[in-house]
Structure formats: structure tokens, C-alpha cells
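User: Predict the full complex structure for these chains.
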Amino acid sequence: MFKGNFIDNLPKIYGTYTGGFLVFCLLMALLEANGVSAKTIGILFLVFTIAIYALIGILSRTMQADAYYVAGRQVPTVFNGMATAADWMSGASFVAMAGGIFYGGYTYMAFLVGWTGGYVLVSSLLAPYLRKFGCYTVPDFIGTRYGGNLVRACAVLVLVLASFTYVTAQINATGTIASRFLGIPFELGVWVGLISILLCSMLGGMRAVTWTQVAQYIVLIIAYLLPIFWLSNKFGFGFFPQFMLGDEVARLGELEAQYGLVKNSAADIKSAGVPGGLKSISVSHAGVAEGGMAAWKFISLAICMMVGTASLPHILMRYFTTPSVKSARRSVAWSLFFIFLLYFSAPALATLAKISILDPNLATGIIGKSITDVQAIGWVKEWIAVKQAYIADFNGDGILQLNEWFMRGDVIVLATPEMGGLPYVISGLVAAGGMAAAMSTADGLILAISNALSHDVYYKMVDPKADVAKRLIVARILLVVTGAFGAYIASMRLTGILGSVAWAFDFAMSGLFFPLVLGVWWKRATRQGAAAGMLLGLAAGTAYLVYVAPAFMGNTPWLGIDHLRFGLIGAPVCLVSMVVVSLMTPEPDAKTQAMVDEVRIPSGKTVL
Amino acid sequence: MSKNNAEAHWMKTRSLMFLTLAIWFFFSIVIFMFGSSLNNASFLGYPLAYYMCAQGSLGAFVILIFWSSGKQNQIDEEHGYGEDD
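Assistant: Here is the predicted structure of the two-chain assembly.
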């Protein structure tokens, strides 16, 4: 099946797969109608989809370095776009984003702008040139362009720090979903998630990850869009909700004014016994705060996420897999298109979820109803039982006020189908989608880390004479070790999903953005400059993070640059030290300059 | 291919990059400097700043990348660096 004209058959193969998946969903709906329990349906959804990914992963096994590291450089443009979109959209995008908008409104939506705008930087500054270069990993580019093991090691350090911060959050998300839907403890769920992730990537490396990511994209986009269209049509808000919820956004504004946006004091929350991490709605949905500081907070977060996007190795390495430079460039556009499909739906989902519980005219509304009635609703009972939702009757009137309803942001997407009164089969589908999103990103990240360790550290520094078989065995051992370490950290539950995801972008931005960009765009950039930039940028960013992060020293942020935005300190330090040191050292030799010239010409053979 | 040709190609590539980033800068940063005043206007029934960060800017980025990659292909072909798919 995976030989000969496999590439030509891709549309047919994935078309059949999509059809098969839809048939499976219908079958589940049929089972539900015939009285099969919700729990069984949830389990079937997870087990079936994970089994398919594992099958693809096993069929794509390989013992060739080119296939293992860059999928044989033959992934067609559009399919690479889908794979990148799955690689990109993490547990945070799928599970937490709509919840973030639900509670944070406009302010939170800086993430939407940041996580899409970064692709403009990827396509104009980096992707086509890195593809032309022909490297296996991102540190491979840094190491060859600047020359020497020191710069290579610095790049590996930044890569590992950024990707590892990110991957624990993904394994955490797989654990949350597995534990909720399989009914097992979280600590065990994390390991179930990890085994599923490794099944996809271990045997076939990048090749296996590519083809499972395409399959995961299809599942996650269906799972995200279907409930949105269904809810919107069910409530009669319009058949194309992304463009037709203007009235509902306005209605939310009215309801906010009617109920009042009250921010509960920490003391009240504590004395009412609200479980940690649960929030009530206290920020306007579409309103924009006045003033320069509010605008700066929005823009600074967007900048960090955009520049971080363009420096994250697990994304950049996806563009090493296309057949040509032209297709790498085109593929960035398709990636963003596939990402856009989910991101422009997230605000619609948040709006629908919010209005379905806020509006007293809808049968699903809970705010303003009697608390005893609300507590009797099935989904409310279930989420309260697992401490993901909470009701605190502050004023003791027995009526649920807006500030008395608490819920964890991360469960909004998972709970929306139930909030809106959709059949349980949709919840199972959404769980499968969330699992696909978290698994696909985790796979990309674990592969990025272990490839850098096996190719750049082991092969290029430790044992350059190792043969292909030995290199690929080392690569797999490192893959398992990286994953296990990530799962171990995740099982200790150190941070919420979002805090650490934003940190990954800031780390990558502090250490890698300028060395990568200037490597292509500034011939005068030297080895010493790059090393200084990476080390000082990373050190400055990390020091500032320790200084402001509430979990560490918790000092007052400077100019509103808090722990989510520490890349704004790291990246400028990186740029300045890189330029100054480069100008102080002799310019790169003729060979390096010729190499840069060669990278800038799109046609012809790769540089390496 | 001559050195001059490569240089001319790179100059055009660079201008396209600057133009692309200028448009990107407008949609990602400039408009959000004026978020609170933009929100008084509306588009498709949504407040404008809300609309732009919910989908307007996102869509602009998608179109921008498709456009600039097409433009870059033209530049490549003009200078004899075109590739077959």
C-alpha cells in the first residue's frame, strides 16, 4: 500500500479514509440511538482513531535516513499543508483556545493573530531557503551556515528548551482527554497518551509522522467544525456561523450589561471553595479596553507569538519534506489556510457556547435560572463531579448569577456539545479531535527534539562515522527517552496548558529567530556573532522570565512585559549581540558566502 | 547563470519580502493600535476590531502568503530559476 505510486494515490487514500471516518461517526450515532452508553461511545471513538494512526505509523516504517528525517522529500504541497496544520494545532489550539476566548474575549484573541501572522514570516524569511539548504534539522542549518560544533550545540540547546516546554503541555492534554473519556486516572492517562504518540512516530520517523498528521488533521477539523455548524443551525443563528453571528455578539454585549460583569474577589472565591483553575465570566466578549497600555498588551503578545512561530523547529522542519523550494513556499500558504479553517471558527464556538448558557430565552440557558434546577442538568452534574465546574451562590438568592458560575477554560470545547444539547456522539467526536490535535503536535515536537539529538549531537559531534542503521536505532532510542521524560514531567502536573505553551514561543524567539533569519539575509553574520546571539538572547530572556514569572520571583513586569512575553527581552538582546559581535569579528570566508548565495537561488540541487 | 542575474534576482526577492512584511505589519500590528476606536465601526454586524482579530487579519495573512508566493514564482521564472512541480 505504501509503495510505488503511493504519492499519486494520496487523494484517493485520504478520501476513502475521510468517508470511512464519517461512516464510523454515523455508526456511533446509531449505537447511541439504540441505547449504547455514552461511556462506551467515548471509548470507541478514542480507540478506533488511535488504532488507525498506529496502523499508518507501522505501515510507514523505514530504515532509510532520508525517509526517517525528511519523509524522503516527496510530500506534496497540499498534504504537507495539512500535516503542518495538524503539527501546529496543539491541544492548546483545539482544547484551550475557544475556552480562552470564552473567558478572555478580545484581549485573548491576540493569540489568534499571533499564531497565524507568524506564517508570513515563515514563508518570506525562512521556509524556502531552509528547504534549498537541504538540512535534516534546524540546528543542522545553523551548524553548517556558521560552521562549528559550538553554534550547533547552542541551536540544539534552544531547540530542546523550547520544544520540551511545549511537549509536556501536549502530553498533559492527551492525559486529560484519555482520563476523562477512558475513565482512568490522569497519571495513567498520560502514559496511555505517550504510547499512542510513540506508536505513530517510532518506526517511521518523519515519514510516519507526516502521514498520521494528515489523518489527524482530517479528524480534528471535522470534530471542530461539525458541532459549530450544528449548534448554529439548531438555534437558528445562521447556516454559516463564522460570518453570521454578528447579532449574537451584540446580544452577548446586552446580556453582559444586564447581568453585570463582576470580578469576584480572591477571598470570596476561596471561602466559597471554588476548585483551583476554574473561572467565571468577568471580561467583555467583544469590547476593547481603551488606552495605550491595553493596545500594547495586545500587540506585544501578538508579536511574541508571531516571531516565536517563525522560530519553532518542529514547524520549520515540516518544510524540509517538500519536493522543491517552490512547493515549500506554496505549502506555507496551504498550511495557513488549513489552520485558518479552525482559528476563524474558534471565536464562533466561543460565542455559541457563551450564548447557549447565558441567554435565558434559549432552552439551554442556565444563568438566571434556579440553582437547584441547574444542578439537576446532566452535563452540569458530570462536570461538577470531576471538579471542572462549580456553582457558588454568593448572594444566597438561589438564582444562578453570571459571577456564580465557574468552569475551567480548557473544558469549554469538550463541554460545548453537551451545553448546547447535542447528542453524546458529538462529544465523543470532539474528544477524538482533541486527542488528534494533541497527539499530532506531540509527535512533531518529540521528533524535532530526538532528531536534533540523534543527528546533530550524536552523528555530527559524537560519532560521525556511524552507519545509517546505527544512527536510526539511536534516533529511536532517543525518541522513546524524550517521550518518557516528557510524560514523567507531565504526570507531575506542573503548569496549566497555556502558560507553558506561550513560554515555548518566547524561548524559541529569544534564541533562534535572528540567527536563522540573518543566516540567510545577512552574509556578514559570523560564527561568533551567532553563538553570542543565541547564548545571550536565551540567557536574557530566561533571566527575565525568572524575574517576572509568578511561579518564580514574581516581580512587577516592566512595561507590561510579563512572563508570557519574555521573548521581547530575549530577542532584541540576541539581535544586538549578534550584530555587534559579527561586526567585531572577521567576515565569513568565501566558501560560506558562496553557500549563502547558493541558498538564495531557488532552483538547482540542495546546498548540503 | 551569471552573477549579475543572481544579484538582480535577489534584489527583486528582497523588495518583495519588504513589501510582504509591510502588509503583514499593517494587518498584525498597526490596526490593533487603534482597537478601541475601530470597534465603534462594524462589519458584517461584528464590531470591527473584534472582527479583524477573529478573522479579518487571519484571512488577510492567508491571501498575502498565496499572493507573495505566486509573485516570487514569477520573479524566479523571469530570471531562469523556475522549477517544475
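Residues 424-462 of chain A form the longest helix (39 residues).
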